[in-house]
């Protein structure tokens, strides 16, 4: 099966559009540590960077204006949604912005540039620790332990 047979129809939130091109970006996040009086430092790997997608689509035909308006509304709707690109398939993304353009010379035609970032998943509440509260609790427990110790009165007059 050739790549042309694997192409999917483009859509965002179920709103179809014609696909012109797309650009994807990703990689790793890193922090560079550099030190005084040293010729070398090191780069600390902080995990995978969120993937971003820049998509140029277009609408054409008798209802092109209604179709581009539906895409605009889809981009402004709350929360992440499904983006389907012909060569990439479905991705759960959040629309960071869009720009639609119509020209007098190209009546019945509009382009729309859309910027997306993969939605990922929010950290769970159970995984987060309130470090201030944890330190305070540990200090209180240590103080109570010292106060209850039989040795706590020795040496203090």
Automatic annotation (TrEMBL):
Domain DNA circulation N-terminal residue range list: 7-89
Superkingdom of this protein's organism: Bacteria
Name of one Pfam family that matches: DNA_circ_N
InterPro entries per record: DNA_circ_N (IPR009826)
Name of this chain's protein: Prophage DNA circulation protein
Species name: Kaistia dalseonensis
């Amino acid at each position: 099966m050739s790549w042309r047979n694997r192409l999917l129809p483009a859509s965002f939130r179920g709103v179809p559009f014609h696909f012109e091109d797309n650009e994807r970006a990703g990689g790793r996040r890193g922090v560079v540590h550099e030190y005084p009086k040293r010729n070398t430092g090191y780069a600390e790997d902080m995990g995978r960077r969120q993937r971003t997608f820049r998509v140029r689509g277009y609408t054409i035909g008798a209802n092109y204006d209604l179709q581009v308006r539906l895409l605009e509304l889809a981009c402004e709707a709350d929360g992440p949604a499904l983006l389907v690109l012909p060569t990439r398939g479905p991705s759960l993304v959040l629309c960071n912005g869009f720009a639609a353009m119509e020209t007098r010379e190209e009546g019945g035609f509009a382009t729309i540039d859309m910027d997306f970032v993969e939605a990922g998943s929010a950290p769970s509440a159970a995984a987060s620790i309130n470090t201030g509260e944890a330190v305070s609790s540990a200090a209180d427990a240590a103080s109570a332990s010292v106060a209850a110790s039989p040795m706590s009165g020795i040496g203090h007059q």
